[in-house]
C-alpha cells in the first residue's frame, strides 16, 4: 500500500476528529463570515499536483489556506440567492455517514440502500400530500428531476401514437407541444436533452400582474394543438413564488388528455404550512412532479426527488440491461429509473433530517422563512429608493430601485451588499430586479434586521 494511504489509514480516528473540529469551527462562525468574499486580485496561480502526496492533514491545511477564504457562506443565514437551503445538523450527520458507507444504491443485489430510499420517499410523499400511486426516486437536483419527468411524458406521448420513443426515437412523435406559463429554464434544457427541442416549449399567456398561467388561455392553446400535449405547471415560480391553479389545470386534462408535469421545486413545501397549503391544492393530481430537497428540506447539495404515476413508462425509458444487474421486475431497481447507473445514497441525509425533526420541525423552518420574507418585503416598502415589485406570497422578495432600475445599477447594489447578504439578479415583467429567497434553517428575524440595515446604508 502506498505509504501515504497507509499512514492516513492508521491515523484515521484522529484525522476525523481533526476534521470534525475544523468543520465545527467553520459552522459556528458561518453567520458572521462575509457572505460572498471578494476574489483576490490577482487570482493565485493553480498549485502543482504533488508527485508524492502530502497526506490528508496537509491537504486540509492547504485547503484552509488557499480555498476556504474564497468560498461563500452559502450554508449561512444571509445567503439568499438561488433558493439555497443550508444543512440541518441531522442532515449533516447523514451526509457524513453517506460518505463513510459509500453505497451505490442502485441494485436489489445489494438492496439495503434502495430500501432506505423507498422508506424516505414514503415519508416525503406523505409530507407533500401525494397519493400512494406516486412512485419516486432520488436525483441530483431540480433540473434532473424535470428531465426525468419530461422523459416519462415523452414516452406517454409515444404510447398515444403506438410507438416508443425510448426504442424508436422521437421522429414518430412529429411536432411536440409543451405548454407552460412561466417555465423554469431547466424545462427548456430538459427538452433539448430529450430530443424534443427548446422550440417545443410554447409559452401561454399569464393572468394579469401574475406569473401564474391563465387557465382560459391554456384551454385555448390546448384547443389549437394538433395531437397530445404536455403541460408544465408551476407550484412556485422563481421570481415571485406564484402558483398555477393546479385543480383547474387538472380539470382541463379531463377534456384534452395531456400529460401534467408540475415543477414544485421549492413550492411543494407550502404543503407543510396550514396557512399556505391551499397554494398547492391539487399537487397530487400531477402525472409527474419535481421537488428539490437541497432547497427547503435543508439537505446538502445535491439532492432532489421526482415522482410519477407511470413508473412503468419511466422504466421503459431508463431500463438498463446488463447481466450483472438485477431484473426489471414489478418493483424496478433504481438503476432502471433514472439516467444514473451510479447513485450515491442521497436519501440518507433526507432520512436523518426527517426522522430527527419530523413534520413539525420542518414546518417551523418553512413558516419562519416565510415570516422573514414578509418582514423584508414590508421593510422594503418603507425604504427610500427601493420598490417592491410583487406581493410576498411565500419565501421570495422581488424588488428593484425606485428610480432608473437598470441591470448595471442593480448589479452594483448587489455587489455592495454581498459581504452582508447575497441576492441574485432577475427581470420581472421587463423590469431589472433583485430577488431574496429565504430557505435556510438558520435564518431568523435578527438576520432580516441586518439585511434591512445593509439596504438602508448601501449607496444607490
Automatic annotation (TrEMBL):
Residues modified as N6-(pyridoxal phosphate)lysine: 295
A molecular function GO annotation: pyridoxal phosphate binding
Keywords: Decarboxylase, Lyase, Pyridoxal phosphate
Superkingdom classification of source: Bacteria
Pfam families, A to Z: Pyridoxal_deC
Any one biological process term the GO annotation gives: carboxylic acid metabolic process
Coiled coil: none
Cofactor(s) annotated in UniProt: pyridoxal 5'-phosphate
Gene3D superfamilies reported for this sequence: 3.90.1150.170, Aspartate Aminotransferase, domain 1, Type I PLP-dependent aspartate aminotransferase-like (Major domain)
Family: Belongs to the group II decarboxylase family.
UniProt cross-references to PANTHER family, sorted A to Z: GROUP II PYRIDOXAL-5-PHOSPHATE DECARBOXYLASE, MIP05841P
Name of the protein described by the UniProt record: Glutamate/tyrosine decarboxylase-like PLP-dependent enzyme
The species this protein was found in: Nonomuraea muscovyensis
Amino acid at each position: 500500500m502506498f505509504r501515504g494511504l497507509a499512514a492516513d489509514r492508521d491515523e484515521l480516528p484522529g484525522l476525523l476528529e481533526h476534521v470534525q473540529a475544523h468543520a465545527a469551527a467553520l459552522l459556528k462562525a458561518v453567520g458572521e463570515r462575509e457572505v460572498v468574499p471578494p476574489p483576490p486580485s490577482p487570482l493565485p496561480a493553480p498549485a502543482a499536483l504533488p508527485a508524492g502526496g502530502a497526506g490528508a492533514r496537509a491537504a486540509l491545511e492547504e485547503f484552509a489556506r488557499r480555498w476556504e477564504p474564497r468560498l461563500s457562506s452559502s450554508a449561512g443565514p444571509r445567503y439568499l440567492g438561488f433558493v439555497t437551503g443550508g444543512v440541518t445538523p441531522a442532515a449533516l450527520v447523514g451526509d457524513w455517514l453517506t460518505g463513510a458507507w459509500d453505497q451505490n444504491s442502485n441494485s436489489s443485489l445489494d438492496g439495503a440502500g434502495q430500501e432506505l430510499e423507498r422508506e424516505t420517499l414514503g415519508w416525503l410523499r406523505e409530507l407533500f400530500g401525494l397519493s400512494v400511486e406516486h412512485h419516486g426516486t432520488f436525483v441530483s437536483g431540480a433540473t434532473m428531476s424535470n428531465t426525468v419527468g419530461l422523459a416519462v411524458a415523452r414516452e406517454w406521448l409515444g404510447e398515444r401514437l403506438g410507438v416508443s420513443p425510448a426504442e424508436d426515437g422521437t421522429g414518430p412523435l412529429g411536432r411536440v407541444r409543451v405548454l407552460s406559463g412561466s417555465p423554469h429554464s431547466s424545462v427548456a434544457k430538459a427538452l433539448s436533452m430529450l430530443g424534443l427541442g427548446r422550440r417545443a416549449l410554447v409559452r401561454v399567456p399569464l393572468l394579469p400582474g401574475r406569473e401564474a398561467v391563465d387557465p382560459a388561455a391554456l384551454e385555448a392553446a390546448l384547443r389549437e394543438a394538433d395531437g397530445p400535449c404536455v403541460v408544465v405547471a408551476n407550484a412556485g415560480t422563481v421570481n415571485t413564488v406564484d402558483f398555477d391553479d393546479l385543480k383547474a389545470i387538472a380539470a382541463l386534462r379531463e377534456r384534452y388528455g395531456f400529460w401534467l408535469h408540475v415543477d414544485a421545486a421549492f413550492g411543494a413545501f407550502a404543503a407543510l404550512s396550514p396557512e399556505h397549503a391551499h397554494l398547492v391544492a391539487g399537487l397530487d393530481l400531477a402525472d409527474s412532479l419535481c421537488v428539490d430537497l437541497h432547497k427547503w428540506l435543508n439537505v446538502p447539495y445535491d439532492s432532489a426527488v421526482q415522482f410519477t404515476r407511470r413508473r412503468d413508462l419511466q422504466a421503459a425509458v431508463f431500463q438498463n440491461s446488463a447481466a450483472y444487474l438485477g431484473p426489471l421486475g414489478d418493483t424496478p431497481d433504481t438503476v432502471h429509473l433514472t439516467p444514473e447507473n451510479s447513485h450515491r445514497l442521497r436519501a440518507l441525509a433526507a432520512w436523518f433530517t426527517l426522522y430527527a425533526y419530523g413534520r413539525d420541525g420542518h414546518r417551523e423552518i418553512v413558516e419562519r422563512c416565510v415570516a422573514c420574507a414578509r418582514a423584508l418585503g414590508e421593510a422594503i416598502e418603507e425604504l427610500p429608493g427601493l420598490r417592491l415589485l410583487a406581493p410576498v406570497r411565500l419565501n421570495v422578495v422581488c424588488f428593484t430601485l425606485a428610480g432608473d432600475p437598470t441591470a448595471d445599477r442593480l448589479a452594483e447594489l448587489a455587489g455592495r451588499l454581498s459581504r452582508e447578504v447575497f441576492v441574485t439578479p432577475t427581470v420581472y415583467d421587463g423590469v431589472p430586479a433583485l430577488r431574496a429567497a429565504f430557505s435556510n434553517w438558520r435564518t431568523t428575524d435578527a438576520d432580516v434586521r441586518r439585511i434591512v440595515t445593509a439596504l438602508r446604508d448601501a449607496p444607490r
